[in-house]
Amino acid sequence: MVVVALALAVGMQQPQVTVDLDRTEVVVGEEMVFTITVTSPGSLPVTITDPPLDGLSLVAPRERSRVSFVDGAAIRVSTRELTLRATRPGTATIGPVRVGQGEFVVATEPSTVRVQEEDPASLNALSPRARAMLGRAPPRPRTDDEVQLSVVASATAARVGEQVDVIVVAWFPRQVRSRLRNPPTLAAPEVRGGWADPRPTPIGTVMSREIGGRWYDAFVLHEVVFPLKAGDLEVGPAKVSYSVPLSGSFLSRELRREALSEPFTIAVRGLPPPDRAGDFTGATGQALNLRVDVSTRELRVGDAARVLSVLSGVGNVALWPEPTIAWPPGIRAYRQDVEIDLVVENGVVGGSKAYEYLVVADSAGTHRVPPLRYVYFDTRASRYETAQGDEMVFVTPEDAVSVAPLRTVQPLLTSTGVSLGEALVARVPFWTWLILFAVPPLLAAYTLGVPGQLRARAARPAVRVPAMSELDRLEAEFIEVLERLLPSDVIPVGGGLADSLRAAGVDPSLAAHAARVRDRLRQARYGPDGSGDPEELGAEVQEVRRALGGTVLPASRAKLMTAVLAVLLVIGGAIPLSGQAPEQLYEAGAVRLAADSFAARTRSAPLVAAHWYNLGNAWQRLGEEARARAAWLRAARLAPRRDVVRRALEATPAPGPSSGNLTWVSPVTPGEAIVGGLTLWIVAWVAIARRWRRRTALAVALVAVLLSGYGGYVRGHYSRPIAVVLQRETPLRSAPYGRASAATVLDQGAAVRLERAWGRWLLVRSGREQGWLLNAEVVKL
């Protein structure tokens, strides 16, 4: 209307013509709209001559016209829309448009359009391997508007651990794709027996092709698959979902459609038997390299060095097992973070996997770590290769040993007696104590002739627990591994497991594969058809457990190994680490061996206060004040009135009121209070049954209740899991990973309450602050 008013204002008599292109850059086969608008005075008809086209073809014209009156004058506005399609790459030209009205003829300037053969940005987003595979899935000539979906693999046969690329190509007819309001959704096929890793792909069309006079646009999805076992690698059907509007109206309803591809299999060959089965741990790849970095090679006793073992090469980095390092005696190693760095070069997946260790020397001398050997199967050379790492040498000078002289510490205790009360409280079940406290009133009531009889409750029928099926066991084992990485109240019930694992520091491809394995377990166990091969699912669950840090031992074998290990620990704890008694080692200056022997005694006899006290003395001579305080706290809880124990504990006070409250020691042990209360309780009810001084007896019964309640309170206080911080300025991290920010810093000897264990991390509370500490940073009480 602004143009019309301006034309009337200047007394314009000839028509005004404007042209507009909705797009100036297109791909071969794409369509654009060329709009011609003619504004002419008067009511005479207007003639519009279509422009000549070079490199474009006319698909459909559309024309409309309207007449309006402005200040009594008639104005005609004619609009003609031409839908054009690019036919060849290069520069397409739209010639001048000629418009005639009466004796006037007006011509416009030509317009140009840049036509590309393909969309380079979308096509270059694919790897070279994926681009080469697109030529193997061309569209088939058809006359209907059906979407064609194909799945293509880079190889029909592969070796275990060898990379196989799988692409999903959805060909949309141009007339269908142009009507879509949202991009279609492609779902990757389910791969059974392999590790699938999604690769980045463009959201829009990747390429276009003209087949049989019709144009097709391709949407692509790319995955990298690593076979896990020999046999058939089953690639299920892929799916594409899209919605087509029922009409051209913006508010029209959309019709949901789907298309499925055909499943197929890939033959997978197993690995040949290795020369030495003990050296091969299951790693596959190409040109693997093993590098070892050490922060320092000279260590004082108690100092720590960081060792980084880095594996790099081509292959499935997430599944490379940890190198075996033979740490010598005198060196203690604690594994820290594992970092995975994926690198994709020309479509080939590789990268590095770094294992970090915290190494602490506990004795003087030269400690040699043999050169690392990492045996793997090279999928390109089809043979076993060995990656070599450098030898590590740590030197701890004799004068660097931090052992306090014997005269600076308290003498050892030789008494090995156990408090009767503590032995009873530790070994008598809780329900037995309830019976012992309930019997005296009942006997007194019976003696006094109280009417009524106690009726025994009918025995409840035993609930038959069904035997756990194979799928139940697999799901239980899988959840057990997840709970080591995610708190039980954080594990997503529905979707989102992959996001939660990635937030916990798990590699994205490993997190996505773990989520798919859990979905398959649920489908196999709870699905309507109950489909699922337990052996195949078991193999995948074991691979995921190994990658996430779990064990792959069967449940029965794991229990057997756990029982054998427990027996060995008990037997080993009862055998001294040297032929000499720990007291003799302590006096001779072999304090490290003495500390190990005292620790073995505490494991075999945890209720002997002397063992804990002697262990604290050994730790103090080694300069481990925090460990010494933890051992003396255990001794004080068992013998709170021993002078030497009390003085040792007073010499290492708690570094704050919060730690003091957690490590408070009662003047009497829980066993003494409970046994004393039970004794008074029996005496009181005997007096009541004999009709002796009942007021006095009731007072004694009240004292018995208070004393027993106090014993129960102290026992509950002692049973709270707490730990003592070992190092100065230990950061209390806000999240369970090494680079997390620190909410506060804890001093050496600070006591913290243990809330929850998560793998090698502990969620603790110090006062009002809550955060995460490593197992190696604390000693538990």
Kindly list the characteristics that best describe this protein.
19 helices, 5-stranded antiparallel β-sheet, alpha+beta, single chain, 6-stranded mixed β-sheet, about 30% helix, about 775 residues, disordered N terminus
What does this structure look like?
- Residues 1-11, 404-408, 450-468 and 550-579 have low confidence and may be disordered.
- 30% of the residues lie in helices and 33% in strands.
- The radius of gyration is 40 Å and the shape is elongated.
- The chain has 19 helices and 38 strands.
- The longest helix has 26 residues, at 694-719.
- The strands form ten sheets. Strands 26-27-25-24-29-30 form a six-stranded mixed beta sheet, with no helix packed on it. Strands 12, 14, 17, 18 and 19 form a five-stranded antiparallel beta sheet that branches.
- With 781 residues, the chain is α+β, with helices and mostly antiparallel strands.
- Helix 6 (430-447) runs parallel beside helix 18 (670-689), helix 11 (555-574) crosses helix 13 and helix 18 (670-689) runs antiparallel to helix 19 (694-719).
- The termini are far apart.
